[in-house]
Amino acid sequence: MDLLDSILTSMDKTATQRAAASSKQEREERARLQRQKKAEQEALVKWRAQTEDQMQRFTEDEARKKLIFPPLPKHYRQVLHEIAESHELASHSFGKEEELPGRYSVVFKKDVAPSPDEISVIASQVGEGTTEIDLEQILENSKAEAEERKAELERKKVELAKRKSAAKDTPTSPLPSAASPQKNYRDAGAYARVLQGSNSLFVLNTQKRDRRTIEEIQKDMKTIKRPRTEGEEGDEREEAKDEEEHQDREDGAGDE
Fold first, then answer.
1. Is residue 95 left, alpha or beta, with left meaning phi > 0 and alpha meaning psi from -120 to 50?
2. Quick one: fold of 19-113?
3. Radius of gyration of the CA atoms of the chain, in A
4. Which helix or strand (DSSP H or E) is residue 22 part of?
5. What are this entry's molecular-function GO terms (predicted)?
6. Is 215 buried (19+), middle (13-18) or exposed (0-12) by CB count in 10 A?
7. Per residue of the chain (256 residues), what is the pLDDT tens digit?
């Protein structure tokens, strides 16, 4: 029993020591985080005071038109924009958060603040690998490039308007109209010959029985496909007349 008690007591002491050590580590970690947070707050307060002074000197210097800040964390940039607004200055950030070196912040005096077109030009050119010297050059050229882009856009609008006007003024050729069927045609062949000049294809609905032979139908089809001479047109008119007279005689015989 003495040995068992000794083992159990030893195990209890070990568990207690581990719990105490873990609790101590947690307290130390919390203390470290608190010190870090306090240091960051103090650094931000100090940086804000320095930036306030820098902005004030920039406002008083008539020769300077812009002030470039290196890439900063997001909460620093928010403070910078607040300070710029309090000094009646314009401020913008350029670049992408996820790309190095990050987002630059630029403060402008309002009389030389970039237009929306210039801001668009600057934003499109600032990216990964852009240095402060590159940014200076981009800012210098932004106005001229924005004006060039605007002029190009106006040229495209004028060209598009001209094309629309030209398309509107161009007369369109009317579609060929189909000839209306006439009551005095006795069969489909005579009516098809009348429609020879039309570009449309018609399916004829007639109550008259087509009494032509296969040879006559083939002849009519050939006539439709090729141009006719004046003599052929006269022959066809005579044939149509003969067919009408023949049909009338048959109809009369049937009535008797």
1. left
2. Ribosomal Protein S8; Chain: A, domain 1 (3.30.1370)
3. 48
4. helix 2-60
5. nucleic acid binding
6. exposed
7. 566 566 656 666 676 777 777 787 888 888 999 999 999 999 999 999 999 999 999 999 999 999 999 999 999 999 999 999 999 999 999 998 888 889 999 999 999 999 999 999 999 999 889 999 999 999 999 989 999 988 999 999 999 988 888 887 776 655 555 444 444 445 555 555 555 544 444 444 445 566 777 777 777 776 665 555 556 566 667 667 666 766 666 665 554 4
